[in-house]
Amino acid sequence: MLVMLALIALPLVTDPIQLRRYASLVVLSLGVLGVVVATGHAGLISLGHGIFVGIGAFSMATFVDNYRLPFLIALPMSFLVTAAVGWLLGLPALRIKGIYLALVTLGFGIMFPALAKQFPSYTGGVSGRAVDAEFNPPAWTGLDPDGDAVLWRYGFCVLVCGLMFWMTANVLNGRMGRAMQAVRDDETSAASFGIDLPRVKAGAFSLSAGLAGVGGALQVVLFPFVSHEQFSIFLSFRLYAAALLGGVATIAGAVYGVVALVLIPAINDAFQLLENDVIVFGVGLILLTFVSPDGLAGLVHRAASGNKFDGVWGNVRRRYSGS
Amino acid sequence: MALLLQRIFDGLFNSAIYASLAISLVFIYRATGLLNFAQGELATFSAYVGFLLVRPTELALAGGALVAFLPGLPWPVPLAILGAVLFGMAAGALTERLLFRPLEGRPVLSVVNISIGMLIAINALSAELWTTRPRLFPSPFPSAPDDFIGIGGARLRFESIGVWLTLLGVLMILGFFLHRSKAGLAFRAITANRESAQLVGINVGRTLMIGWAVAAGIGALAATLVADAVLLEPNMMLRLLIFSFAAATIGGLDSPGGAVIGALIVGLTQTLVPGYTFVPTELSMLPPLLAMLVVLLVKPTGLFGQKRVERV
What we know:
Largest interface: A-B, 47 and 47 residues
Number of strands of chain B: 2
CATH topology of chain B: ABC transporter involved in vitamin B12 uptake, BtuC
CATH architecture of chain B: Orthogonal Bundle
CATH architecture of chain A: Orthogonal Bundle
Number of strands of chain A: 2
Largest sheet of chain B: 2 strands, antiparallel
CATH class of chain B: Mainly Alpha
Shape of chain A: globular
Oligomer: heterodimer
CATH class of chain A: Mainly Alpha
Number of domains of chain A: 1
Number of helices of chain A: 15
Strand order of the largest sheet of chain A: 1-2
Order of helices and strands of chain B: HHHHHEEHHHHHHH
Number of helices of chain B: 12
Radius of gyration of chain B: 20 Å
Distance between the termini of chain B: 55 Å
Strand order of the largest sheet of chain B: 1-2
Shape of chain B: globular
Number of domains of chain B: 1
């Protein structure tokens, strides 16, 4: 609820340039959601979700520019393309588990920018590509196509993000979501209950990739430029850290993660604290693993319900005592 | 022919670096079953400390005031490298004690979180303290343009020979530590069977701390040796880490000898494959990465690893 209010208030308190910057963080929420789905719900640790954000962005740029498709058609197509790539990349996850999967996704995440450079007709190669097509408000809205374009794009992105969150929540609460959690908790027993392991795992990874892909595609809606540099391994780290900071076990966690994703740079900008705010994500990740393994969502949940919560330090004390 | 030889020499130089880092990864994996993604960043940070000791007055270098208390600065290169290694060992031991030991028995995700959190934090900290500008870390070996032996038209640089000799020295010291010292014996006991080791009175915590210190020290050494070739900067070890992980995986994650063989395979494919196939140099990471993927898929124990039996 609070988050919704903040999203509505954001355009009112910022100027268009800032708005565009925060909007590009808001759309990354879909990348965070992707990590939550893969890592939190299906137990597939992914350190490379920046890849899917990148593929989503590149395919969006290709569809609207190379093929001159309208944005509203290109967006779902980008989702499908990324989901398909996610399915393919998810195939090794059928056999590789846990920390080894983290290693493989980390490797591909580090290599992705170099790989993207090799396909200049889609990615613009070394220098990146400008996107000519613009997503402007249609005449019936009565918005000024120049002055209000940023606002219109922001509204559109928030709407799409909301839709994707709603859709994902439904999937996770449904048959597929339960199956994913069963697989995460114990593969052997999940299989013995008749759950089709390969289908569930590949499906989960594919969905999570598709979500991140939409996040990337929306970046093209906001900014008419894409480059491999935007999708370095540090984007993947940011998404992973934000998801785990928020709490990967629930959708609410993804929302908290996004709040962290937006707020940390905002605070850093306001006070001019650090050259690069990514350090906060790293330290936060370490701290929360000790204090509250289920992230901010878990912290808030326990504080609100008042049980089994002896303060932040209680948890730390327990970790260190007696060892 | 000369080109082939040159590529082999270059590949061998890379292999030595990957081998060092891969050994430090294997060392920790054997004892704890953990892949430490922060190993590379820890090494980079230690290399920066070494750089402080050898070039304390360089521009935009935080900590210059701190090391000013040390006598005889700037130190000669080998001494500075020793300083970096000692710093790395201390940092490794502290990491084990403060970050990983309290999390024993927690799910894999927690361990991944800590090592990734460390990776991000240390990387950003290095950039924050020392900026991202690449630094020229002096090599401890003669590395002037004409310091090489010509073999069949190719250049075998003194630096490569030095790095290989250092690696051999490290392996010998490591072997000595593992097989001739009490701490090494305890370490091997823990690797073989942790609970039994604990039952016969081995201080598991302290031994693991020593193991982490040794691993981080080797990593720091690798970073200072490679820093001359790839230039010292905060992201220096990210790519090297993946190459080293690939090497360790191919050789078998629990086999130090396998790590060296794996490093040879990775280092040579890295220079030979882009040289003779359609794979561009920029994608030199692709073949090792794919090899790692195939090994994990088909034979997760690698070439020389021992099979681990998982009980349900």
